[in-house]
Write a structure and sequence with these properties.
The complex is a heterodimer of chains A (259) and B (206).
Chain A: E1 5-13, E2 16-17, H1 32-41, E3 47-51, H2 58-70, E4 77-80, H3 86-94, E5 99-102, H4 104-108, H5 111-120, E6 125-133, E7 144-148, E8 153-158, H6 159-169, E9 173-178, H7 190-199, E10 204-207, H8 213-221, E11 227-230, H9 232-235, H10 241-250
Parallel strand pairs in A: 1-3, 1-11, 3-4, 4-5, 5-6, 6-9, 9-10, 10-11
Antiparallel strand pairs in A: 1-2, 6-7, 7-8
Chain B: E1 2-5, H1 13-21, E2 27-29, H2 32-36, E3 40-43, H3 49-59, H4 61-71, E4 75-78, H5 80-83, E5 88-89, E6 94-95, E7 102-106, E8 117-122, E9 124-125, E10 140-145, E11 147-151, E12 157-163, E13 165-173, E14 176-179, H6 187-199
Parallel strand pairs in B: 1-2, 1-3, 3-4, 4-14, 5-7
Antiparallel strand pairs in B: 5-6, 7-11, 8-10, 9-12, 12-13, 13-14
Classes of the chains: A alpha/beta (259), B alpha/beta (206).
Chain lengths: 259, 206
């Protein structure tokens, strides 16, 4: 049986991770390569790097990070943030990432999903979705709207429609982030996650709101998610991946326990 | 010389990297003449069967692979490389290499399970093979695929995996062994498989 994936997410700015791990050992908490190595050994099933670099030479910085991470870990990882075109995708994939995540660029240019899927295969094209709850309307019948710029800019696009459209365009996976839940550590947006996951045939990674192992349990059962993204709850040492997996395994969630 | 066949079907860096982790340099090539000198061949790949077969033919690598198989050198197919070694693929209704009798079939969607089958899953090994020795019970391997290889002979199925249906995830015939999963992305147990492959002389009874 396929295991549910537990995926730490690392934000990278100017080649350094922005949230540190609180650990006693020798992990350089600002070094994405050291953190990748740490999570690889700690039992992460996959890693996500999100590039929040603003400078103009962001691509070169991130490509260097990707190359060094790829030399250290033998599990898949994806890179998102600032992927605007096929060249960006190619650079990241050739540097050793397994997947690229496209978000606002795909909304602005949906053909990017198809072009990426044709060039590199659907399996490496992840659609990143930032979603905000709104009152249902004729344009947003599901009551969940696509947003960009960290939630500041509503796009007038229904999230449910967009998820299904992205599948049609060739996306291989969806990373679904609830702007409402993000940063709260109060639990994932279960209604949204379930709605999207049940509506698409491809895997859905739930993101936003993880603060405790029970939140992962909820989103992997009630929320129907195939994988769960985590950040602060492990970055600050509150929980370990092993601890989270043991908690889930005790509740009959299939997780990878031997690594 | 360990040759990694590049037929423009996805990213080979992780395969090269994994070999490096084992202290071995792989030679990535699109040249049939280089494949002809190989002592060992790794045949990876992701993507669609139809396009992959067209590229293999265009580059003359289809013949090079058949000759490698005939020469008896150890060959490891990975993912798409485990599918197009069969005679035919349902994906693009493509005629394939035919190094092993059988067909590649679409993985049926058994709801609520998702397609592609993406993530970590177990392999239940059905018979001993030197390439899969020393792997612990409960080990999982990284999969990402929508089709699976279905050899015509059950003796060629070395291991199976469950995703709605039980499908062959490790297959072998003579000097050819192949995995639907990615050993190069499957942590240290995947690395163990690659190490076993590098030590294998290719002699295994069907």
């Amino acid at each position: 049986m396929l295991s549910k994936r537990i995926i730490p997410c690392l934000d990278v700015r100017d080649g350094r991770t922005t949230k540190g791990i609180k650990f006693k050992n020798n992990v350089d908490i600002g070094d994405p390569v050291a953190m990748a190595r740490f999570y690889y050994e700690a039992g992460a099933d996959e890693l996500v790097f999100y590039d929040i670099t603003a400078s103009s030479d962001r691509r070169n910085i991130m490509i260097d990070v990707v190359r060094r991470v790829a030399a250290e870990i033998l599990i898949p990882f994806s890179v998102g943030g600032g992927i605007r075109n096929l060249n960006d995708m190619r650079d990241v994939l050739l540097a050793g990432a397994e997947k690229v995540s496209v978000n606002s660029a795909a909304i602005q240019n949906p053909g990017l999903i198809t072009a990426g899927a044709q060039a590199f295969g659907s399996q490496c094209i992840v659609l990143g979705m930032d979603v905000k709850r709104v009152a249902p309307s004729s344009t947003i019948p599901s009551g969940y709207e696509m947003v960009i710029h960290g939630g500041r800019t509503p796009m007038g696009i229904d999230a449910l429609w967009w998820a299904q459209e992205a599948v049609r365009l060739g996306a291989g996976e969806i990373c679904l982030n609830s702007i409402d839940a993000d940063g709260t550590q109060a639990g994932y947006e279960l209604t949204l996650t379930r709605m999207i996951s049940e509506a698409v045939p491809i895997p859905v990674i739930a993101s936003g709101g993880a603060g405790a192992p029970e939140h992962l349990h909820q989103v992997l059962t009630e929320g129907r998610a195939d994988a769960a993204l985590i950040a602060s709850m492990v970055h600050y040492g509150t929980y370990t991946i092993k601890g989270i997996k043991d908690y889930l395994a005790q509740r009959d969630i299939p997780v990878r326990l031997v690594w | 010389m360990i040759v990694i066949i590049d037929y423009q079907a996805g990213n080979l860096t992780s395969v090269v990297r994994s070999l490096k982790a084992l202290g071995v340099e792989g030679t990535v090539t699109q040249d049939p003449a280089v494949v002809a000198q190989a002592t060992r061949v790794i045949f990876p790949g992701v993507g669609a069967a139809g396009k992959a077969m067209a590229t293999l033919k265009k580059l003359g690598l289809d013949q090079a692979l058949r000759q490698s198989f005939g020469r008896g050198i150890p060959i490891l197919g990975i993912c798409l490389g485990a599918q197009i070694i069969l005679e035919h693929s349902e994906e693009n209704d493509a005629a394939c290499l035919g190094l092993m009798p059988g067909r590649t079939r679409a993985l049926p969607r058994v709801e609520p399970l998702k397609i592609p089958h993406m993530g970590w899953n177990r392999v239940r090994f059905l018979q001993y093979h030197p390439v899969f020795k020393g792997l612990p019970e409960g080990a999982e391997y990284y999969f990402v695929h929508s089709y699976y290889p279905a050899p015509a002979e059950t003796t060629m199925v070395l291991g199976v995996t469950d995703h709605g249906i039980e499908f062959p995830s490790a297959i072998g015939r003579r000097n050819l062994v192949a995995t639907q999963f990615h050993p190069e992305k499957s942590g240290r147990f995947g690395l163990q498989i690659l190490e076993n492959f590098l030590a294998w002389d290719g002699s295994h009874a069907e």
